[in-house]
């Protein structure tokens, strides 16, 4: 109901009329509309235009606040998670630490199980992510997933098999839902922002009208740039435990790299020959608890940010509509979207998007960085990557002026050049002379990552405007990323050349496939999109006690039958997202009732009375 | 009653249950002393004492003594205090032995006050350091029963006139800076002065050995002293000088290693020890001065030949020790007709004897003990021992003996102990152990020879040791029952014995030692790997492995076993960590368990399940021990004493609980090496003290608490989405139903509220007929036909001129019960639906909702009910009813309605 401008809600006309309609009392007296309005309505110096403008400005600021809060929450969560994981893996790598603290507990085994939990569980995410998102709603899904990340931090207080492994599995389950709902949320915010800034045009067009295609794209670009700028900062945040705590305990490179023979393109696996002891002295458990408590507090803060500052992505009625399409349908729809050639063409890019982040964190940072510069400089290398990516996320704004493919292809080209360069570079272990090359490479890789991430997310937001499918699309995107991460996890022992080759091939395939898709769209090929079924309200809720509307099942049934059933409806609603396709019977024809999407755009039809 | 007796009984049983802290003191019972005796080193100890304590690294004497139980009888202190204060030991009235290995320079008067039972006092100091000890003249005045006083190390030269207690029997001054025996007489003038005029001082032993500077004996230095034994070993004193000391009497003189080049004149002492001097040759003339000797020790003197007529020159000689010389022939008896000597013990071991002539032992018929070990004897005639009618003990071990003379044992009727270890015997027809009736102790190398022949042994043995070399064929024992055999030692495995009736073969076996590979042969070969011999009376078992066994054997099923020692079981080629439960199983009577180098790693409570009586656990040479924290719960049943000797706890957090536990535990006394350190495998230079290190590096309950707290908070927060989700659906229903139930519970009490109507009847116009015909008469009619209730019927009772909605709401609020009459028509009627919805929403939202009853006039499909009207479906079972068509069932309907409206019947 917030779309309705209830300035001074005593506006008697609406109230009385609403009452009458709701009660549906036939023999009630006609409401005295005009006199009451005069009595309690606007006072003399009431400027309706001005008030309306202020109202929508507040709304827009609220949307901005939502975006910032979600971005900050995501950043903090991911930063805490990465930082903790990195710290614990380094600590557990140290032979002495394992020996002393965990003796016969089999810590390497636990660690490998934990990594397996994190990397393998997301493979199943395609099955449940849309269901979860629709069940809880986007905002609450974000909140829940952030909570699971925080739970992972919490279990690190008490490192046992029965705490770490289940929490790692839970974390693995939460990865795809979190980032899918995050992407969905940002996209949705851009659409809302458009609504609130173009409220006049909408009023003129009428509530049933949907905004022109791609109209929210500029806002989407800005929001995604903000989001990814924040998000990439998380890699830098993750290094703070290293910089302020763990680096004091680490041996220098002469000790850790003593037996490392080859680096970079010549290396095999992850840091073969790396010294088994990396800690000069073991950190005291009290200090560890302090560090973990700081991380835990930050994770809580992220939760509270999402809980308190992120507004809902949809109106309550929209949420109910979204989940009322039937759980079976929700389950199937991500798979049905494979019919859409645009998604099919983008899959290599999704995979590459997963590859390149992990390559930056493992291949580049470990195989090239740590291998030649020592563990103590890992943090600074990743900070360079992070800052580069964070700053370059605003390069995604180039899409405001250039064709949308340019930033995406530019990022890919940058990565291509870097990958080719890395193919022929084997830095010498324990030689710091060329460390600047590594830092520059890290920054440039970050720039490429940022262009890739912003470009892809924006593209998805532009291609799929209707809110019914955005969560499916983002689920598919992040699921493919998870698959990529899983592949990297499987192939972590491959030689560096093989990894680079896989990266290169994926990159070329991704760009080629993407350009082919753009070409098809140019030619006007119409993608097949699965129909989103009409909401069927089976939910009992208090909402229906207050408002007289679509829940009149008998009327609904009649009207649905009168409307020619699913067939006629299908055509109309299914094609509503065509980019340039003809929309033959959008305004006339059998679809009397507005599609849910249009409902959302123009308020909720009958609710708007 | 028994409970009352039990408690003091327990207290008596464990008098030391309090105050045992993890101090530097090792406490042990005297009977268990042998297990830890090597920790006591030079401390004077006696296994007969009930309780012994050893405190090392003492810096503050008072503090250290506070940790020692008061009932201790033997106490040894080592550390740095230099002054012994007054009344230092007044808390230990029962002390019998006291060793002070301190860096003492001064003993204050009255230091030993209260030690009325002290028998042995020793002052120890590191040798080679000139440390002067100052004693007050009456230092030992309180020690009324002191028998033995030793000074090992400290210099006493600066003292004078120290009084000795009259009960003193033995005085030792060793490693001291003594140069002249007269100095001793100056320090202890009592020695010369005597007890009283005319009554000389008498000592059993005066030990002045190991005084490297002692070279002078002023004539008459110890004039008048009656002395049993005088030790001058390892000094520079000449034996001849002893005669000038002026001793009143001397029984034994020991001048071991004193540069004596020829047999000295013993100064009248009948016993002489000249061992470790370079004599090489004894001139026959010097024998004359030894005419009265009873005992002569010529051990390690480099003799190559015995002087002829040695025994003849010393007719009273009873014990002769010629061990460790280079003798090739034992020319003791000159010929068969020589004089008969009274020699009782003869030691010829470790010489080069290769042949024994028939006359060798012909002149010593009194000989009881003969040691011939370590010679070159390969064979001897059966008649060699002819005439040794009284020989009881014969040692022939370590000789390359191949064959024994036929019937050789027949000439030794009194033989009790025979040692034939480390020989090369061959089983032949001449093999015969007949002869000595009393042979009890036999040590035998298993003979080689043709397989199949049984090994015949005397049946009355009480002690038997069998040695086997590897690769030997298994032999059967010839009598298959040894009725009195008590001690059996098997070194290697060479016997063919059935395991199932072993308790019949050795019915009296008490003590079993398994050395070398014999344990492997006695272990089941399946996965359980348990000890196979079932010996119900076995009390002591000692196993010493050969470090080749790949897996441990579990000792179990020995109901009487009291002592178990497992030694060197760890395989040196493939070491693997062992758990205690892999080594021992069900041993209910076991009191002492000693594990030496078994590769033990983990001790957990499970291992102690079958060891209910365990009192002492000794872990020796075990490294990297992990004490599982299940022991903490087990600690009431843990052994009372645990000694970790040369054993180190692993530097793992699993051991972190041990430190605090050691300090708190009052039941179990655990001794560990004081400076347990973290020896990290790759830890580099840092070596931290174990417990502080673990204390600061191991996560403790704080981590667990934080984990539980934060995850509980997280789960609470994470349940918010669920609650939020539920807010719209079932929570409200739940709430409504709970409230209805609650009202049902206290409904009878809420009757006094005033209602305008009893029942508000919501119905549509089409159903009005039913209401007027059926319902109204029954409800409003006067008793007994009707129930006399006040109905609110919309057509009749609504206030004219008032809004319909207000009328409905007010009437509903003013009625005790809302009765909805539902039919298909009613559901199509807007006002009916309004009324029904109002009723349901009141049910959900109002603070004191009315009772809602629903009457279905006809069956209505669930799908025909609007959503919110389906609330009615969620009403309690008794809140709705169907109007029956049949007349006979209408009575039920009215009964239901009556009960719901509070009208019985």
TrEMBL record, chain A:
GO terms for molecular function: Toll-like receptor binding. It is a multi-pass membrane protein. The chain crosses the membrane at residues 63-84, 114-133, 140-158, 164-186, 219-246, 294-314, 346-366, 378-401, 408-426, 472-492, 498-515. One of its GO terms (cellular component) is endoplasmic reticulum membrane. The keyword Endoplasmic reticulum applies. GO terms for biological process: adaptive immune response; defense response to virus; innate immune response; intracellular protein transport; toll-like receptor 3 signaling pathway; toll-like receptor 7 signaling pathway; toll-like receptor 9 signaling pathway; toll-like receptor signaling pathway. It comes from the Eukaryota. It is found in: Cytoplasmic vesicle, Phagosome; Endoplasmic reticulum membrane; Endosome; Lysosome. Its main location: cytoplasm. Residues 1-30, 525-609 are annotated as: Disordered. Keywords: Adaptive immunity, Antiviral defense, Cytoplasmic vesicle, Endoplasmic reticulum, Endosome, Glycoprotein, Immunity, Innate immunity, Lysosome, Membrane, Phosphoprotein, Transmembrane, Transmembrane helix. The keyword Glycoprotein applies. InterPro entries: UNC93B1. Plays an important role in innate and adaptive immunity by regulating nucleotide-sensing Toll-like receptor (TLR) signaling. Required for the transport of a subset of TLRs (including TLR3, TLR7 and TLR9) from the endoplasmic reticulum to endolysosomes where they can engage pathogen nucleotides and activate signaling cascades. May play a role in autoreactive B-cells removal. PANTHER family: PROTEIN UNC-93 HOMOLOG B1. Belongs to the unc-93 family. This is Protein unc-93 homolog B1.
From TrEMBL, chain B:
It comes from Tupaia chinensis. GO terms for cellular component: plasma membrane. SMART domains: LRR_TYP, TIR. It is found in: Membrane. Residues 755-901 form the TIR domain. The keyword Transmembrane helix applies. GO terms for biological process: inflammatory response; innate immune response; signal transduction. Residues 1-19 form the signal peptide. It comes from the Eukaryota. It is a single-pass type I membrane protein. Gene3D superfamilies: Ribonuclease Inhibitor, Toll/interleukin-1 receptor homology (TIR) domain. InterPro entries: Leu-rich_rpt, Leu-rich_rpt_typical-subtyp, LRR_dom_sf, TIR_dom, Toll_tir_struct_dom_sf. Keywords: Glycoprotein, Immunity, Inflammatory response, Innate immunity, Leucine-rich repeat, Membrane, Receptor, Repeat, Signal, Transmembrane, Transmembrane helix. Its main location: membrane. This is Toll-like receptor 12. Belongs to the Toll-like receptor family. One of its GO terms (molecular function) is signaling receptor activity.
């Amino acid at each position: 109901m917030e779309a309705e401008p209830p300035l001074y809600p005593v506006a008697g006309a609406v109230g009385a009329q609403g009452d009458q309609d709701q009660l549906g009392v036939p023999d009630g007296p006609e409401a005295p509309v005009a006199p009451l309005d005069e009595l309690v309505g606007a006072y003399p110096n009431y400027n309706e235009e001005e008030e309306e403008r202020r109202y929508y400005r507040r709304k827009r600021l609220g949307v901005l606040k939502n975006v910032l809060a979600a971005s900050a929450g995501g950043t903090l969560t991911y930063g805490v998670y990465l930082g903790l994981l990195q710290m614990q893996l380094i600590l557990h790598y140290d032979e002495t630490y394992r020996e002393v603290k965990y003796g016969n507990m089999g810590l390497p085994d636990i660690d490998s199980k934990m990594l397996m939990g994190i990397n393998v569980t997301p493979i199943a995410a395609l099955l449940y992510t849309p269901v979860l998102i629709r069940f809880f709603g986007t905002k609450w899904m974000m909140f829940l997933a952030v909570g699971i990340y925080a739970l992972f931090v919490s279990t690190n207080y008490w490192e046992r098999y029965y705490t770490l492994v289940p929490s790692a599995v839970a974390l693995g389950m939460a990865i795809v839902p979190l980032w899918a709902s995050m992407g969905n949320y940002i996209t949705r915010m851009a659409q809302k922002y458009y609504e609130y800034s173009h409220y006049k045009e909408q009023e003129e067009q009428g509530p049933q009208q949907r905004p022109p295609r791609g109209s929210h794209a500029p806002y989407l670009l800005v929001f995604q740039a903000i989001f990814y700028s924040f998000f990439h900062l998380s890699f830098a945040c993750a290094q703070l435990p290293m910089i302020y705590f763990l680096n004091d305990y680490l041996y220098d490179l002469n000790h850790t790299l003593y037996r490392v023979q080859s680096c970079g393109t010549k290396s095999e696996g992850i840091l073969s020959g790396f010294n088994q002891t990396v800690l000069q002295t073991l950190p005291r458990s009290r200090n560890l608890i302090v560090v973990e408590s700081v991380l835990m507090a930050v994770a809580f803060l992220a939760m509270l940010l999402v809980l308190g500052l992120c507004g809902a992505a949809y109106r309550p009625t929209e949420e109910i509509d979204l989940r009322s399409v039937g759980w079976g349908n929700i389950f199937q729809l991500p798979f049905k979207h494979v019919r859409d050639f645009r998604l099919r063409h983008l899959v290599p890019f999704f995979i590459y998007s997963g590859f390149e982040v992990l390559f930056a964190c493992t291949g580049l940072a470990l195989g090239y960085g740590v291998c030649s510069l020592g563990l103590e400089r890992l943090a600074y290398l990743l900070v360079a990557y992070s800052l580069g990516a964070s700053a370059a996320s605003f390069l995604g704004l180039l899409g405001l002026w250039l064709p949308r493919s340019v930033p995406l292809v530019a990022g890919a080209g940058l990565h291509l050049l870097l990958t080719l360069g890395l193919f022929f570079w084997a830095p010498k272990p324990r030689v710091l002379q060329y460390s600047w090359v590594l830092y520059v490479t890290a920054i440039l890789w970050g720039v490429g990552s940022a262009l890739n991430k912003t470009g892809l997310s924006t593209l998805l937001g532009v291609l799929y405007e209707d809110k019914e499918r955005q969560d499916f699309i983002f689920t598919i995107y992040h699921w493919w990323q998870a698959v990529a991460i899983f592949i990297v996890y499987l192939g972590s022992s491959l030689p560096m050349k093989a990894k680079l080759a896989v990266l290169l091939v994926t990159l070329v395939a991704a760009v080629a496939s993407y350009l082919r898709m753009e070409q098809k769209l140019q030619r006007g090929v119409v993608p097949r999109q699965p129909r989103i079924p009409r909401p069927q309200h089976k939910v009992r809720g208090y909402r229906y006690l207050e408002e007289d509307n679509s829940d009149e099942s008998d009327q609904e049934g009649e009207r649905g039958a009168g409307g020619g059933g699913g067939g006629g409806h299908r055509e109309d609603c299914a094609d509503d997202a065509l980019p340039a396709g003809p929309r033959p019977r959008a305004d006339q024809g059998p679809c009397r009732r507005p599609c849910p999407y249009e409902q959302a755009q123009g308020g909720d039809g009958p609710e708007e009375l | 009653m028994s409970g009352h007796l039990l408690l003091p009984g327990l207290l008596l049983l464990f008098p030391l249950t309090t105050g045992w802290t993890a101090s530097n003191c090792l406490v042990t019972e005297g009977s268990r002393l042998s297990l830890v005796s090597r920790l006591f080193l030079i401390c004077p100890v006696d296994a007969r004492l009930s309780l012994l304590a050893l405190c090392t690294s003492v810096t503050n004497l008072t503090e250290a003594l506070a940790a020692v139980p008061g009932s201790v009888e033997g106490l040894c202190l080592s550390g740095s205090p230099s002054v012994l204060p007054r009344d230092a030991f007044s808390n230990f009235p029962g002390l019998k032995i006291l060793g002070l290995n301190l860096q003492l320079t001064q003993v204050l008067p009255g230091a030993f006050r209260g030690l009325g039972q002290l028998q042995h006092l020793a002052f120890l100091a590191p040798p080679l350091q000139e440390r002067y000890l100052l004693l007050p003249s009456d230092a030992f005045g309180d020690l009324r029963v002191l028998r033995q006083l030793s000074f090992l190390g400290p210099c006493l030269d600066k003292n004078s006139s120290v009084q000795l207690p009259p009960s003193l029997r033995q005085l030792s001054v060793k490693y001291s800076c003594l140069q002249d025996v007269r100095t001793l007489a100056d320090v202890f003038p009592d020695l010369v002065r005597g007890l009283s005029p005319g009554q000389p001082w008498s000592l059993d032993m005066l030990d002045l050995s190991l005084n490297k500077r002692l070279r002078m004996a002023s004539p008459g230095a110890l004039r008048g002293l009656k002395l049993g034994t005088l030790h001058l070993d390892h000094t520079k004193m000449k034996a001849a000088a002893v005669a000038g000391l002026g001793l009143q009497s001397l029984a034994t003189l020991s001048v071991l290693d004193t540069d004596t080049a020829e047999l000295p004149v013993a100064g009248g002492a009948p016993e002489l020890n000249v061992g470790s001097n370079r004599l090489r040759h004894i001139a026959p003339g010097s024998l004359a001065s030894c005419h009265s000797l009873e005992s002569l020790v010529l051990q390690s003197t480099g003799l190559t030949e015995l002087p002829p007529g040695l025994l003849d020159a010393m007719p009273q000689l009873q014990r002769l020790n010629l061990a460790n010389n280079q003798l090739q022939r034992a020319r003791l008896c000159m010929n068969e007709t020589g004089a008969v000597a009274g020699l009782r013990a003869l030691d010829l071991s470790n010489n080069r004897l290769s042949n024994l002539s028939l006359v060798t032992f012909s002149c010593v018929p009194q000989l009881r003990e003969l040691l011939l070990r370590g010679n070159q004897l390969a064979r001897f005639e059966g008649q060699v021992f002819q005439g040794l009618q009284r020989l009881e003990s014969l040692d022939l071990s370590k000789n390359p003996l191949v064959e024994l003379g036929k019937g050789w044992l027949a000439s030794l009727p009194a033989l009790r102990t025979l040692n034939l270890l480390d020989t090369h015997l061959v089983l032949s027809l001449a093999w015969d152990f007949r002869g000595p009736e009393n042979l009890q102790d036999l040590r035998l190398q298993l003979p080689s020879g043709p397989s199949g022949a049984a090994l015949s042994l005397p049946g009355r043995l009480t002690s038997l040791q069998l040695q086997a070399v590897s690769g030997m064929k298994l032999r059967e024992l010839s009598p298959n029952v040894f009725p009195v055999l008590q001690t059996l030692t098997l070194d290697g495995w060479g016997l063919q014995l059935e395991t199932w009736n072993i308790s019949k073969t050795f019915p009296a076996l008490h003590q079993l030692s398994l050395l070398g590979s014999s344990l492997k042969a006695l272990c089941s070969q399946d996965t359980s790997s348990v000890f196979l011999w079932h010996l119900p009376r076995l009390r002591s078992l000692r196993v010493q492995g050969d470090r080749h066994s790949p897996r441990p054997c579990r000792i179990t099923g020995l109901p009487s076993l009291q002592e178990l020692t497992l030694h060197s079981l760890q395989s040196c080629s493939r070491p693997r960590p062992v758990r205690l439960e892999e080594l021992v199983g069900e041993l209910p009577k076991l009191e002492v368990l000693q594990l030496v180098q078994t590769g033990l790693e983990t001790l957990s409570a499970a291992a102690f399940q079958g060891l209910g009586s365990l009192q002492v656990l000794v872990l020796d040479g075990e490294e990297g021990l992990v004490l599982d924290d299940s022991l903490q719960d087990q600690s009431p049943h843990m052994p009372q004493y645990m000694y970790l000797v040369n054993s180190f706890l692993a530097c793992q957090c699993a051991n972190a609980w041990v430190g605090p536990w050691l300090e708190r535990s009052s039941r179990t006394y655990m001794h560990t090496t004081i400076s347990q350190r973290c020896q990290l495998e790759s830890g580099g230079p840092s070596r931290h003290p174990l417990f502080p290190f673990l204390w600061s590096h191991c996560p403790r309950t704080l981590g667990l608490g934080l984990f539980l707290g934060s995850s509980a908070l997280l789960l609470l927060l994470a349940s918010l989405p669920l609650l939020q989700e539920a807010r719209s659906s079932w929570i409200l229903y739940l709430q409504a139903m709970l409230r209805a139930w609650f009202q049902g519970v206290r409904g009878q009490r809420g009757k006094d509220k005033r209602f305008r109507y009893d029942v508000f009847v919501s119905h549509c116009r089409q159903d009005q007929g039913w209401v007027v015909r059926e319902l109204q008469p029954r409800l409003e009619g006067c008793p007994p036909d009707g129930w006399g209730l006040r109905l609110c019927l919309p057509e009749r009772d609504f206030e004219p001129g008032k809004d319909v909605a207000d009328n409905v709401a007010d009437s509903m609020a003013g009625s005790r019960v809302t009765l909805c009459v539902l039919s298909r028509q009613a559901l199509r009627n807007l006002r009916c639906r309004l009324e029904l919805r109002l009723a349901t929403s009141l049910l959900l939202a109002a603070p004191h909702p009315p009772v809602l009853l629903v009457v279905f006039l006809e069956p209505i499909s669930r799908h025909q009910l609007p959503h919110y009207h389906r609330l009615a479906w969620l009403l309690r079972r008794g809140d709705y009813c169907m109007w029956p068509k049949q007349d006979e069932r209408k009575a039920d309907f009215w009964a239901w309605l009556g009960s719901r409206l509070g009208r019985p019947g």
